[in-house]
Design brief:
Length: 382
């Protein structure tokens, strides 16, 4: 376990990229920190709706954004936290696909060497409408055509420190087992079981996972327990680390190898759009785990990144980077009376974020302006 003193990076200037793994990197490390694969959507997000659209009427939104979505939410969140991220995905050869590819590769620095552009295949699209703290989505798309030339999932994923997978009942992904065999630490979440069986044994790839991060409703149903904490303890008998997210109540985790448990309350914020918040949480937890932070610090950091994300619109658009984290910490320290008692466990950020509060705030504002693009792409640079 890495101590707080050993991960101190000094009083770095704002704007300099924070490398959370800097203290532990070595020449023998793989080039890739995290590998993941899945479907990339073009997300079009409408915000500022006072209520759900009414049939037969036209609704005007006060805000909108466009960004790569789907698995791109997770890939972007990881990359913005300083992890070298490799994504294997299919991209259409339409304008939407071109925009998503450029946004991820050029805009976020994500390695797309294992991704493929597929001629004649149009990009999946999701329209998301955020109102009353919730979201409604409409999606359209077709599965990428089969065939070795267009299959975005490689037979053998790259050597990586970690991989992120989304589990589904009754489905095994060969790449997950291959990644684990090559030394990757596999982190997984899960979706709602539409079959209603909630059979933990049906999640075959769970056997390859180091950490499993369901939400409270999923965890309770999969374990047959009566509360999220009991569910986490039961899951820790199946995976080394079980993390259960509890929404406004925070998150609870158990390390089944050591018996350690930790609970961190959620940060109260005014949520604009929850799209992608779960992906951002997982990215924060992966970052802290690979860096060797204590379990409670990992939960705190994951919760913070998720809280920052829901205050902006969009999935990948809202994923915070270190400028936003630094700005939040410095603003918290500057409050009358200092850091509130209930948030003092975030003191570990002092060793990680830039030391200049004013510069960190300006860099955070610049980062938001760079990312919040309301259209598919301008013909000329602004």
């Amino acid at each position: 376990m890495t101590s707080r003193n050993s991960r101190q990076n000094g009083n770095r200037a704002a704007g300099e990229q924070v490398d959370p793994l800097g203290p532990i990197r070595s020449p023998r490390d793989p080039d890739c920190d995290v590998f993941l694969t899945g479907t990339v959507f073009l997300d079009i997000i409408f915000t500022g709706l006072d209520s759900a659209p009414v049939r037969g009427t036209e609704s005007w939104a006060r805000g909108m954004g466009s960004s790569p979505g789907g698995v791109a939410n997770m890939a972007t969140a990881l990359a913005r936290l300083g992890l070298h991220t490799s994504l294997a995905a299919a991209f259409g050869d339409d304008h939407y696909g071109e925009y998503c590819w450029d946004a991820l590769e050029q805009g976020e620095g994500i390695d797309l060497a294992m991704s493929r552009r597929i001629p004649g295949w149009h990009s999946p699209v999701t329209v998301s409408m955020a109102y009353e703290g919730e979201r409604t989505m409409v999606s359209h798309g077709h599965e990428a055509p089969p065939g070795a030339a267009s299959d975005p999932i490689p037979d053998c994923p790259p050597r990586a420190r970690a991989a992120v997978a989304s589990l589904a009942p009754g489905r095994r992904e060969e790449w997950v087992a291959a990644a684990a065999r090559r030394g990757a630490r596999v982190f997984a979440d899960v979706g709602w079981d539409e079959s209603g069986r909630w059979d933990l044994d049906a999640l075959g790839d769970l056997d390859h996972c180091e950490a499993f991060l369901p939400n409270a409703a999923e965890a309770v149903r999969y374990t047959g327990t009566d509360c999220p904490r009991a569910a986490a303890r039961a899951l820790a008998e199946r995976v080394p680390i079980a993390v259960v997210t509890m929404g406004a109540q925070g998150s609870y985790a158990v390390d089944g190898r050591t018996g350690e448990s930790a609970e961190v309350p959620a940060i109260e914020v005014e949520a604009l759009d929850p799209t992608g918040a779960g992906d951002v949480y997982v990215a924060g937890f992966v970052t802290g785990t690979l860096a060797g932070w204590p379990l409670a610090d990992r939960l705190a950091f994951a919760g913070l990144t998720a809280a920052l994300s829901v205050q902006e619109f969009g999935g990948s658009l809202s994923a915070p980077g270190w400028p936003e984290v630094a700005h939040w910490w410095h603003a918290l320290r500057a409050r009358p009376g200092g850091v509130p008692e209930g948030l003092r466990h975030y003191g570990f950020l002092e060793d990680l974020v830039p030391g200049d509060a004013a510069a960190a705030a300006e860099e955070a504002r610049r980062a938001v302006r760079r990312r919040a693009v309301p259209t598919i792409g301008f013909r000329h640079s602004a």
